């Protein structure tokens, strides 16, 4: 049932994006290549071989995009810093890029001038390519010190103004998709061990950066350092079946617990250690494929988060499924479960993202119980559409936001310590291996147009109303928001159609007319030659 009410005073509302997905300018002003530059430049890695080379041209449109944030009336903007933009090789001792540092300084200053708080992620997947080539990226323990140098540079250059730092955004995807399945950069398929090793180094790196901030910068800068973990909710198919309940627990522990448990409780979840350890022994391996933390490391890692960032998109039903003993090991067969969806769940866009709002409240309550009710910021939550043609009247996104934000309100009443919400994302952008075919933006971008204009979808108007009211005051008002949002998007749609027609005409003018003109000249020359020959 829907709950009408408002959020506590001071609750933070925002939107987010990431550097590689929006900035473009991949080789401009001294930026070094990232693993995503290298990955997308190989054929067959991304849908339609699209790249983020220019993406949303965010590098050149900071002022325009801050205007959109002002329109939305958000309190904060979650952005990420591109490591190779400020440190081209990833190694501090080798080279710093002053133009890159200036770009982020200008961006942060512009946000603050407009009363928008920057929440900054140090890593949203764009590792410097040099570190991948030289050391094997997150497979190598040397990343810990290189990343710590980079983080300290960011604290030094921006920490006087940035008070909310995220070390890693969705490290689960970095490890699993980058080093297990190879769907994401760097595209390595190290099945059964690559993801565990990458995650192990990422967790240790996170802890080192937290301690660096704590020891060197905290007293002076008075900021906070956390991590952003993305996880779905796993609901047992049969809540009365112990095996299904155990399988659902494993689903959460192999996603969220993999990273949260070491940070909040000092070690990997017991169930993870047991399952991966047992399967490793069955394979005849002397040690578990899941690396172990030493006693000192456990103490060092535990408690290294001032807040927990949570990304959440969808839910699965989970049941027990035994995978027979396999010579080829895999993270996906280690947890002995199968995932199902309810065919009645709305799936407006891609087939992985079903709208199941009630799962969010359960996930937030799980975090409260499991990790001692930490301070939570929702760092990513949103829904995408699969792009056939521009869809500005995004009713499904309105329903999604309404449902999921309402579950946060219910979780607050359960005593969960949520302090802010970040809608994902501000703009349609480059969606990793899906290219531009999936659109998460509140603002539509016409990527065919050279200026990449932004157009508000209906969800902009609706989200703006939630922010202004700080929640959902009463049924009549909320229904009104919906009607007005749909009316506004119809007008914007007409503008977009007119602009698209003009763009089409411009393309015709720029390409067809010169071609026709050239052909006319060639035909004239040929006719002239014939004429002269005949007369001679």
From TrEMBL:
Family indicated by similarity: Belongs to the glycosyl hydrolase 1 family. Klotho subfamily.
Keyword line: Glycosidase, Hydrolase, Membrane, Transmembrane, Transmembrane helix
Biological source species: Struthidea cinerea
Molecular-function annotations in GO: beta-glucosidase activity; galactosylceramidase activity; glucosylceramidase activity
GO biological process, one term: carbohydrate catabolic process
Protein name: Cytosolic beta-glucosidase
Upper lineage: Eukaryota, Metazoa, Chordata, Craniata, Vertebrata
Transmembrane segments: 511-532
UniProt cross-references to Gene3D superfamilies, sorted A to Z: Glycosidases
Gene field: Lctl
InterPro entries (alphabetical): GH, GH_1_N_CS, Glyco_hydro_1, Glyco_hydro_1_AS
Annotated active site: 380 (nucleophile)
């Amino acid at each position: 049932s829907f709950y009408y009410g408002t959020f506590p005073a001071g609750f933070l509302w925002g939107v987010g994006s990431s550097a590689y997905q929006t900035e473009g300018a991949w080789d401009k002003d001294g930026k070094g290549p990232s693993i995503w530059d290298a990955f997308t430049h190989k054929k067959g890695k991304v849908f339609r071989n699209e790249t983020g080379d220019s993406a949303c041209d965010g590098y050149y449109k900071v002022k325009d995009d801050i205007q959109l944030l002002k329109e939305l009336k958000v309190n904060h903007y979650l952005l990420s810093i591109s490591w190779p933009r400020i440190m081209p090789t990833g190694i501090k001792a080798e080279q710093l890029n002053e133009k890159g540092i200036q770009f982020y300084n200008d961006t942060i200053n512009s946000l603050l001038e407009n009363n928008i708080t920057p929440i900054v992620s140090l890593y949203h997947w764009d590792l410097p390519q040099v570190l991948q080539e030289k050391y094997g990226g997150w497979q190598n323990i040397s990343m810990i010190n290189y990343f710590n140098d980079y983080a300290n540079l960011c604290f030094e250059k921006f920490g006087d103004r940035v008070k909310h730092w995220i070390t890693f955004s969705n490290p689960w995807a970095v490890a699993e998709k980058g080093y297990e399945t190879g769907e994401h950069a760097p595209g390595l398929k190290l099945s059964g061990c690559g993801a565990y090793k990458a995650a192990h180094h990422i967790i240790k790196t996170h802890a080192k950066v937290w301690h660096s901030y704590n020891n060197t910068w905290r007293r002076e800068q008075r900021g906070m350092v956390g991590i952003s973990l993305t996880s779905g909710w796993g609901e047992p198919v049969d809540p009365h079946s112990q095996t299904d309940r155990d399988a659902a627990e494993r689903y959460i522990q192999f996603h969220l617990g993999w990273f949260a448990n070491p940070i909040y409780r000092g070690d990997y979840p017991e169930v993870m250690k047991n399952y991966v350890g047992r399967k490793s022994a069955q394979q005849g391996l002397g040690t578990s494929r899941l690396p172990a933390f030493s006693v000192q490391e456990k103490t060092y890692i535990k408690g290294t988060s001032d807040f927990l960032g949570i990304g959440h998109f969808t839910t699965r039903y989970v049941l027990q499924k035994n995978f027979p003993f396999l010579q080829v090991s895999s993270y996906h067969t280690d947890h002995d479960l199968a995932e199902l969806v309810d065919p009645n769940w709305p799936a407006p866009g891609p087939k992985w993202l079903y709208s199941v709002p009630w799962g969010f409240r359960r996930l937030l309550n799980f975090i409260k119980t499991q990790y001692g009710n930490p301070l939570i910021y929702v760092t990513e939550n949103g829904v995408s559409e699969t792009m056939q043609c521009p869809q500005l009247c995004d009713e499904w996104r309105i329903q999604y936001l309404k449902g999921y934000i309402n579950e946060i309100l219910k979780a607050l009443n359960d005593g969960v310590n949520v302090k802010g919400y970040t809608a994902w994302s501000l703009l349609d952008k480059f969606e990793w291996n899906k290219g531009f075919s999936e659109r998460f933006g509140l603002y539509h971008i016409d990527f065919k147009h050279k200026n990449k204009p932004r157009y508000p979808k209906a969800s902009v108007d609706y989200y703006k109303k939630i922010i202004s009211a700080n929640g959902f005051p009463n049924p009549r008002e909320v229904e009104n928001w919906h009607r007005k949002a749909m009316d506004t998007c119809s007008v914007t749609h007409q503008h977009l159609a007119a602009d698209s027609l003009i763009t089409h005409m411009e393309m015709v003018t720029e390409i067809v007319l010169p071609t026709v003109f050239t052909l006319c000249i060639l035909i004239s020359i040929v006719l002239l030659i014939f004429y002269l020959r005949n007369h001679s």
